[in-house]
From TrEMBL:
<dbReference type="Pfam" id="PF14464">
    <property type="entry name" value="Prok-JAB"/>
</dbReference>
<keyword id="KW-0378">Hydrolase</keyword>
<keyword id="KW-0482">Metalloprotease</keyword>
<dbReference type="InterPro" id="IPR028090">
    <property type="entry name" value="JAB_dom_prok"/>
</dbReference>
<feature type="domain" description="JAB">
    <location>
        <begin position="50"/>
        <end position="142"/>
    </location>
</feature>
<dbReference type="GO" id="GO:0006508">
    <property type="term" value="P:proteolysis"/>
</dbReference>
<feature type="region of interest" description="Disordered">
    <location>
        <begin position="1"/>
        <end position="25"/>
    </location>
</feature>
<protein>
    <recommendedName>
        <fullName>JAB domain-containing protein</fullName>
    </recommendedName>
</protein>
<dbReference type="GO" id="GO:0008237">
    <property type="term" value="F:metallopeptidase activity"/>
</dbReference>
<dbReference type="GO" id="GO:0046872">
    <property type="term" value="F:metal ion binding"/>
</dbReference>
<feature type="compositionally biased region" description="Basic residues">
    <location>
        <begin position="1"/>
        <end position="23"/>
    </location>
</feature>
<keyword id="KW-0862">Zinc</keyword>
<keyword id="KW-0645">Protease</keyword>
<keyword id="KW-0479">Metal-binding</keyword>
Length: 225
């Protein structure tokens, strides 16, 4: 007699449910005051502008204020003054804050539409924040795009992209554009504005440059001269 075939176990046929990766529960949050401040500072010039995010004591990923330090900026870079950074750290410690509250979140803007970090951004982040146990690089582009990355530098290391939110769940101060403007004027230097200005044709006409030449350029004289 042929053996009776055994019925296959339903358990063997059942597919194992696929494990889904859990979405990160953390987010980089800004108080409405800090977000309005960042937007205002972004729109004050044609260059990048950078600063530190000062956070809540009980939530190190909730930015409550943006602090600028003296810096030289271009459309593609921000260079902080070392002494200004040291003074800022001293002031924050004197105010009773821990370094995790003011020295871990680096924020800067991009004049264009892209918030993706450049090679210069990555080099600056690694050089200036690579010794900290963790740090965040945040970028806000002129067009509104944002980029936030939490970097772990201890142990096995790693990084995590963070969603960006404005947090209305806590009390917040009203805007103070006059103080923000003064902070920008006191700290931000546009490096391109320090370069010698090129002389245009209208400047040469005004200075009498062409008067001593043996030929004339009347037909090429600027219309608005």
């Amino acid at each position: 007699m042929s053996p009776v075939p055994r019925k296959r176990s339903r358990h063997r046929l059942a597919k194992q449910p696929q494990r889904r990766r859990r979405a990160p529960t953390s987010a980089l949050r800004f108080s409405p005051f800090a977000w309005a401040q960042l937007l205002y500072l972004r729109d004050q010039g044609e260059t990048e502008v950078g600063g530190f995010g000062v956070t809540a004591e009980d939530n190190l990923l909730r930015v409550e204020e943006i602090v600028l330090v003296r810096q030289v900026c271009t459309a593609t870079s921000v260079k902080f003054d070392d002494m200004a950074v040291a003074d800022f750290f001293d002031q924050q410690v004197d105010a009773g804050r821990q370094p995790q509250q003011f020295g871990r979140i680096w924020l800067h803007t991009h004049p264009g539409d892209s918030a993706q970090p450049s090679w210069t951004d990555e080099q600056t982040f690694a050089r200036c924040f690579g010794q900290a146990d963790w740090a965040v690089m945040f970028i806000l582009a002129q067009g509104g795009e944002t980029y936030a990355r939490l970097q772990f530098n201890q142990g096995p290391g790693g990084s995590l992209l963070l969603p960006v939110e404005t947090d209305f769940t806590r009390p917040f101060a009203g805007s103070d554009e006059a103080a923000w403007r003064q902070q920008y004027v006191d700290n931000v230097v546009d490096e391109t504005a320090q370069l010698p200005r090129q002389r245009h044709d209208r400047d040469l006409w005004r200075d009498g440059f062409f008067e001593d030449l043996p030929f004339h350029f009347e037909e090429d004289k600027p219309d608005d001269f």
